[in-house]
Amino acid sequence: LHGFAEGHRPLFVLALAMLILEAGSGVFQPYPIGYLIDFLNGKKPALSFPWATSPQFQTIALLTSAIIAFAALRSLCDSLAEIFLARAGRRLGYRVRVTLYAHLQRLSLAFHSRRQTGEMLRRVTSDVEQVENFIIASLSDITGAILVLIGTLAFLLARSWQVAVLAAVLVPMLSLISHFFSERITATSRRQRAREADLTSAAQEMLTSVPVVQTFGQSDYEQQRFAEGSRNAMLAALDSVGLQASFSWVVGVVEALSTSAVVWLGIWLVNRSALTVGTLILFIILIQNMFKPTRKIIKQWSLVGKMRASVERIADVLDRSPSVHDLPGAQKAPPLRGDIEFRDVCFAYQLDPEDA
Question: What is the enclosing helix (H) or strand (E) of 178?
Fold first, then answer.
């Protein structure tokens, strides 16, 4: 898909810039809460102007205003990123769909005779739609999760290297878990796409040959065939849902274990005056925020698997070269009038040897 993104890269760059701002505001959004707790406990100075009559009131007002400002900035960047990705995704999908359609017309009749019409129809429509949905709905979540992870680790490293090391241990753990489930979800989604293509082909063939089916009394056979294809597609979809649910459960357990580990480490640092209570609460919120995008991705992981399967199916068609090519020096045919004219043509019936 890299070649199809040519000309639309500014939209992707703008979307990435919005996602970076969203991740940064998301990382710093809990900071005023931690500062407020430490301020109320007398661990942080007041944030007020020299002429303020009530430093405590003004500090609370500034911190709560900062929370609102970070939330507003984060929401705005998220909305703009969705707009840019929607435009880029739709335009990219348009180019892929038109290119795939044109390529199918150039392929030989032998290729089309070996392929089911319903399957090719699904590649032009449904598979391209899966790619569009991935760019619009899932790409921002995946990119945002990575940026939040990087931003959180950088923030933790600046505040406490001990907690940062603990958080860094989570990265390879989440990577291994994601790789384990992603491979299986992708394989299941690939099988599901194939079953859905077979189901579409069966429905298309039956609908285009209803008179023949009814004439030869094959309605029961076609019904059984369609029911079997529908059952296979259903089982493949249920396998994908089961893997997605297991993935979510494992990540939930890892999140709870990580939060507990941060609490124990934070209490140990608080007892040694290396950390304040407000900063500990800030770290807990940051660790939980690291998992929020991950849990959001899990809900759409089946869509990621379907996208990968759809890209493979689209690439399989585009990689096939047309078997008929114009010879070097071939000239373009002149405009045809639609009439048939015979010149210097003769024919005769062959005489029977007995009549000769």
Answer: helix 161-208
